[in-house]
What does this fold into?
Amino acid sequence: MISNIKNIFDKYNKISFMKYIITGSSGQLAKAFIKKFKELNYDFVAPNKQELDITDKYKVEKIFLEYTPNIFINCAAYNNVEFAEQDNSRAILTNKTAVLNLVEIAKKYNTKLIHFSSDYVFDGTKGSLYTEEDKTNPLNEYGKSKLAGEQEALKYNNSLVCRLSWVIGEGQQNFLYKLSGWLKNNKTIKVSYDEVSVPCFTFDIVDVIIKTLENNLVGLYHLTNSGKASRYELAKEFVRLNSCDNEILPVPMASFSSKVKRPLVTAMSNKKISQELNITIPSWQESLKKYIELIKNRIS
Ligand SMILES: NC(=O)c1ccc[n+]([C@@H]2O[C@H](COP(=O)([O-])OP(=O)(O)OC[C@H]3O[C@@H](n4cnc5c(N)ncnc54)[C@H](OP(=O)(O)O)[C@@H]3O)[C@@H](O)[C@H]2O)c1
It folds into this structure.
């Protein structure tokens, strides 16, 4: 018992004395890391895109030299699925080439790399929850760039790659933020019932990543909240919890015009990461309530 407690204490102490760089600091996931790391009093720097463009190899190496991080958390990414389809150059540069450079530099300075990928590496046709062993087959340029990036990251034996889906946190680049705006201006809102994945709340992602650091996990994992939902189910639950009187109409995803092919059912299983860390990741419904508390002022 005492040695168990000592082990936990040692693990905690080890990671709390490390130095971290967090990239893409204006993004929603980076914001959650910054918030948590401030609470925990971790030693970190979090440059934004202007301060550290990850596609600038020279600047990335400079910050490694100046700050000597133990852990590099790459939250920076090009996430514009529509634009990437018209011109994939920015997506490739940010999501693949920059990761290749990060790996080279992280290897050189013996730094652990944490990188995030996406459920869009799958084509959405499996019919059940995707596992880490499933075949990838991205349908669009964004998905291809994210797949290429995770493959680069995984060439380094000291990197952890977590695939995420429907990332939701304090920020504007997520479905619920947009939905809360639509709810204010429209009585009826059409939402797809056949697009299914798992909402991933940034505060849960950060908590799990801290556990992965304590347990020194490397390799590829799916990191999602527990359960799965269609966009329609997510929107309905959001409206219910906020006691809104808007009507949410279920429609097929195909009814929205888009030049991009999107996978329909990309929900991933978090079984591997949960088992290896011996944790239960909260259900998306549970974390949705917590998220609503966080953004309360915006929808009232
Ligand atoms: N959002 C989702 O639903 C979703 C789903 C699956 C996986 N993911 C993955 O999860 C991770 C976190 O996503 P997120 O939702 O936090 O994304 P986000 O809110 O869009 O944040 C990404 C941040 O990276 C910045 N950035 C873009 N290019 C950069 C560059 N070259 N150098 C430095 N910073 C750069 C962006 O700045 P600008 O906005 O100024 O360009 C933005 O602040 C990403 O790897 C993403 O691909 C996200």
Remarks:
- Residues 89-108 form the longest helix (20 residues).
- The two ends are 48 Å apart (CA to CA).
- Residues 2-171+199-226+266-282 form a domain with the Rossmann fold fold (CATH 3.40.50.720).
